[in-house]
């Protein structure tokens, strides 16, 4: 995205994106997803803010893909890429490798098209996986699972303190990682003097993949409405953003404590929208990636895809992988725990793995 304008009159919202065209962009799918994300005309009678007490929509059906195959480098990313292209969303994954080189993959997924219960859709999925894996497939199965199965497979809501310390140690020491692992030089300011009805938030930062998402999910969690906004990206990926905002009561943000809280959260989310670290577990090496979950229970999309792609580019095999949601401090996080192959991981510096994964997640590759 090069720039964007957004404005609202309190009932209708007008958004214009100027984007850079890429050959692989699926424009029809993008249009379909944007239309689905917009509220219907009948619901546009007033501004609707997110409140946890509102009734959530019916959750989509969850299916379990059981895949047994012969291991090879880049296998998990190839599978993830196929599922993504088929518009199958990975809710949870558990991957393990046996001593004889056989991989057992368990993917809990939902279907954006809501057709995975049909034979044709299941055959389409199998054919796509077979094409990319060729003779490596040993067995394959898709079945719909009930809430009792998904509940049994849920991770513990709390992680051991040793793991949370590994992920968030820079916060406790007030030290951020090196420039290569952060969106450096983030400046966030607030001004109430330029508009009689709105608070102006000005942001200057380095562009990254998901920047708009990171800003909007933060404002959404704080129940803030944007009345007008402009995003502009200059050369060198420097992004300048002006947002005229107000609280859910239609007033400016004048309370100093609320101003400080919002500014601090925005700066932190732009400095490090995710947490990435590689730690030693005895003889093993574990990659940890943590992604904050919105109050609406949505997580950042395509994180697992980007992680597996980065490891594939590093020619690093994955021994096991798990995705789980956990409460860390006062927030829910989606935590990716990936045990790297002992032989491959020992030859690549930990810092190199962290940097490559981070760059892929931020779109800086």
Automatic annotation (TrEMBL):
**TM segments?**
none
InterPro entries attached here? ACR1-12, ACR2/9/10_N, ACT-like_dom_sf, ACT_ACR9/10_C, ACT_dom
| Gene3D superfamilies (UniProt xref) | 3.30.70.260
GO MF annotation list: amino acid binding
Superkingdom assignment: Eukaryota
Cross-referenced PROSITE patterns: ACT (PS51671)
Keywords attached to this entry: Repeat
Among Pfam families, the record links this protein to: ACR10_N, ACT, ACT_ACR9_3rd, ACT_ACR9_C
Does this UniProt record's set of keywords contain Oxidoreductase? no
* Domain ACT stretches: 64-145
Checking PANTHER family in the record gives:
ACT DOMAIN-CONTAINING PROTEIN ACR10 (PTHR31096:SF23), ACT DOMAIN-CONTAINING PROTEIN ACR4-RELATED (PTHR31096)
Query: Protein name, please?
Result: ACT domain-containing protein ACR
Species of the source: Gossypium trilobum
